[in-house]
Write a structure and sequence with these properties.
Blueprint (H helix, E strand, L loop, with lengths): L1 H4 E2 L7 E2 L2 E3 L6 E3 L3 H7 L2 E3 L2 E3 L6 E3 L3 H7 L2 E4 L2 E4 L5 E2 L2 H11 L2
Antiparallel strand pairs: 1-2, 3-4, 5-6, 6-7, 8-9, 9-10
Helix pairs in contact: 2-3
Length: 103
């Protein structure tokens, strides 16, 4: 999902942008609110929520974590945040970062 969150550059890395344009509703949101915004697009049906990004039906209690996983980019040595580009050694530390910084 890097195309959602990074400005193209002629360098070997992407530069994070201040705002993100939602691919679902085309609204421009702050990168700090990106994951929260996408999570709000979920469609509730009983105890499940349909993910707006992949269509999967996820239990309500696991839905936010599921949405966060769409912003995880696997790297050779760790993980990268798909919103701001920060790198992390463990998936857990990246998910905590996404929860604190992008929701």
């Amino acid at each position: 999902m890097a195309e959602l969150c990074f400005a193209c550059t002629d360098r070997e890395y992407a530069v994070p942008v201040v705002n993100v344009t939602c691919t679902i509703c085309k609204k421009t949101v702050s990168w700090r609110e990106a994951v929260k915004h996408y999570a709000e697009h979920g469609k509730r049906s009983g105890d499940n929520v349909a993910c707006p990004l992949c269509g999967a039906k996820v239990k309500s209690r696991e839905y936010r974590r599921h949405v966060r996983m769409h912003f995880v980019k696997r790297r050779e040595r760790g993980y990268m945040c798909g919103v701001c580009g920060r790198s992390f050694i463990t998936l857990r530390s990246l998910l905590v970062h996404i929860q604190k910084m992008h929701e």
